[in-house]
Design a protein that fits this description.
Elements (H helix, E strand, L loop, with lengths): L1 H44 L11 H14 L2 H14 L4 H21 L4 H17 L4 H13 L31
Helix pairs in contact: 1-2, 2-3, 2-4, 3-4, 4-5, 5-6
Length: about 180
């Protein structure tokens, strides 16, 4: 009886491992198909026959990233924008916000004197991301660097007065003097 139960347990464990291997194999096949589709899309951008836009949002993100790296910034912005509009605050939309903010910052750094509008757009996108995902430390770091490049003046707070220019307050019945 013990031998039979041990063989049964081993058989169940083998079936579980086979199921996991099958699932991983199917995932690998889907990934390879998506990669092949992405290669066809990239080739279409290089002057080959046109290919339909990718259906999967992951492919849209990869395509937008490849376009940004190739210097086609307008197409990359459109791709990131489509991902941001399509998904409210899913991880792909957050990644698109992060990449779009960085794209604006990189373009701003490259332009030099006319960089302020692009840096402001980059800061805006990174702030949107931080509203959705406040735990994103990479976005915080990039926003801090952008704020160092283009500091913001806060008009809501008055400029600090020097210590000698403080108004004196008189309280009836209280002797003026230094505090102990």
């Amino acid at each position: 009886m013990k031998r039979r139960s041990a063989h049964l347990l081993f058989g169940l464990l083998s079936l579980c491992c086979a199921g996991v291997a099958l699932e991983r194999g199917l995932r690998l096949r889907q990934t390879l198909e998506r990669n092949a589709q992405l290669v066809r899309i990239a080739a279409a951008g290089q002057g080959a026959a046109p290919v339909a836009r990718p259906a999967a949002r992951e492919l849209q993100l990869a395509l937008a990233l490849a376009q940004a790296q190739a210097g086609r910034y307008e197409a990359a912005r459109e791709g990131y924008g489509a991902l941001i509009q399509a998904g409210a605050r899913d991880p792909l939309a957050q990644q698109a916000l992060f990449n779009l903010g960085n794209l604006y910052l990189r373009q701003g750094l490259a332009q030099g004197a006319d960089a302020l509008p692009l840096i402001e757009l980059g800061k805006q996108r990174l702030r949107e991301l931080l509203r959705a995902a406040p735990q994103d430390w990479d976005a915080r770091y990039n926003l801090e660097r952008a704020l160092r490049l283009a500091p913001e003046e806060d008009a809501d707070f008055p400029a600090e007065q020097p210590p000698g220019a403080r108004p004196r307050v008189r309280i009836p019945g209280f002797v003026t003097g230094d505090l102990p």
